[in-house]
């Protein structure tokens, strides 16, 4: 049986009431690229906007196998038990490339997904990293309007997606495991530099000592890097997501982080900066899309051939596309 389409008013009311089914349907509209859905999606976002901003936004990254989902389940359940409402989102653009998704399998975080205080949404499928990140960011706002006060945004720490997630969260956590070098773990130095904390996971059993050594090493590395978040010295912790040891300390650290940033009036200012970045990034995407859909873009194949053959310079070719008037004038004047 087909459901009648969701109206913006209905969606906003449902989201505001914390109705998970309606929240999920609203997100589906946001994720849809169908032109018919864009208008209602924009209305939903606009009307939810006044209720956004009241969460702590936490990014979590680490290579596959580091223990992200095990950690998120444990961390999320603890928070839910303490009365928080926790939303888990993911940014995984690999689905666009491989058809499968590193973060997408449905069996993950089963206990958390059953908790009434939690909401788990897998990465939007398909599209570019920019598109996936854009939809996740809007989803984050809807979750805030729905009353989730802790938003966890998970991503795989092996590519550009960490940068995208970093720009949408307050606190960025890198999960590592002891014993494997950073290169083995596929972690780029840049990712370490973006972290507000490094968490060495699997600090249990025989691995405990090695994990503690690794934690010490990361603490030294972080000490010498200039902090990504001004005013905050990144910390290295160790935990076992499996048995729960050290997981509560992560939440304490994040609380501490928030206090420090609020004291220095950095909390809101960073979010404002992130909004401006976000605006520019959307604008860039929109202008590009508009260009490629425009009639001017029909000139592209001809110009490609001309450029390849050296008959037209690249500068000239670009100019003729972005400022056809000027080119025409030059042609008319016998240039
Ligand atoms: P993800 O790919 O980063 O999401 O990693 P998973 O959470 O799926 O964990 C990968 C494997 O490591 C699973 O077999 C987990 O049971 C195991 N694992 C995760 N956390 C811990 C931990 O704290 N200690 C131990 N010993 N194993 C862990």
Can you offer a commentary on this structure?
- With 335 residues, the chain is α/β, with parallel strands linked by helices.
- The protein has 3 domains: 51 residues, Single alpha-helices involved in coiled-coils or other helix-helix interfaces; 213 residues, P-loop containing nucleotide triphosphate hydrolases (Rossmann fold), CATH 3.40.50; 53 residues, no CATH class.
- It is built from 15 helices and 7 strands.
- A 7-stranded parallel beta sheet has the order 3-2-4-1-5-6-7, sandwiched between helices.
- Strand 6, helix 10 and strand 7 form a beta-alpha-beta unit.
- Helix 1 packs across helix 2, helix 1 packs across helix 3 and helix 14 packs across helix 15.
- The protein starts with 7 loop residues before the first helix and ends with a helix.
- The model has no long low-confidence stretch (mean pLDDT 88).
- The structure holds guanosine-5'-diphosphate.
- The site of guanosine-5'-diphosphate has 14 residues, from helix 4.
């Amino acid at each position: 049986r087909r459901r009648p389409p969701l109206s913006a008013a209905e969606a906003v009311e449902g989201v505001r009431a914390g109705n998970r089914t309606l929240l999920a349907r609203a997100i589906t509209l946001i994720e849809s690229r169908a032109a018919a859905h864009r208008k209602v999606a924009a209305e939903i976002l606009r009307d939810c906007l006044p209720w956004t901003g009241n969460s702590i936004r936490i990014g979590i990254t680490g290579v596959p196998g580091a223990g992200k989902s095990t950690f998120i389940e444990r961390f999320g359940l603890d928070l839910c038990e303490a009365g928080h409402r926790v939303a888990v989102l993911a940014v995984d653009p690999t689905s666009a490339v491989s058809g499968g998704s590193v973060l997408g399998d449905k069996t993950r975080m089963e206990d958390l997904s059953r908790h009434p205080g939690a909401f788990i949404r897998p990465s939007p499928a398909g599209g570019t990293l920019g598109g996936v990140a854009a939809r996740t960011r809007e989803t984050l706002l809807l979750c805030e309007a729905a009353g989730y006060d802790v938003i966890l945004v998970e991503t795989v720490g092996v590519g550009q997606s960490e940068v995208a997630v970093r720009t949408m969260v307050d606190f960025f956590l890198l999960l590592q495991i002891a014993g494997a070098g950073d290169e083995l773990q596929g972690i780029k130095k840049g990712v370490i530099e973006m972290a507000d904390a490094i968490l060495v996971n699997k600090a249990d059993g025989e691995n405990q000592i090695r994990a503690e050594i690794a934690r010490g090493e990361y603490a030294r590395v972080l000490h010498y890097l200039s902090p990504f978040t001004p005013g905050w010295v990144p910390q290295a912790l160790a935990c076992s997501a499996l048995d729960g040891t050290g997981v509560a300390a992560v939440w304490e650290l994040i609380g501490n982080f928030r206090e420090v940033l609020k004291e220095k009036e950095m909390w809101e200012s960073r979010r404002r900066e992130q909004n401006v970045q976000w605006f520019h990034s959307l604008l860039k995407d929109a202008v590009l899309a508009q260009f490629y859909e425009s009639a001017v873009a029909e000139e592209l194949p001809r110009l490609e051939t001309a450029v390849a053959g050296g008959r037209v310079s690249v500068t000239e070719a670009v100019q003729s596309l972005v400022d056809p008037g000027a080119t025409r004038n030059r042609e008319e004047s016998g240039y």
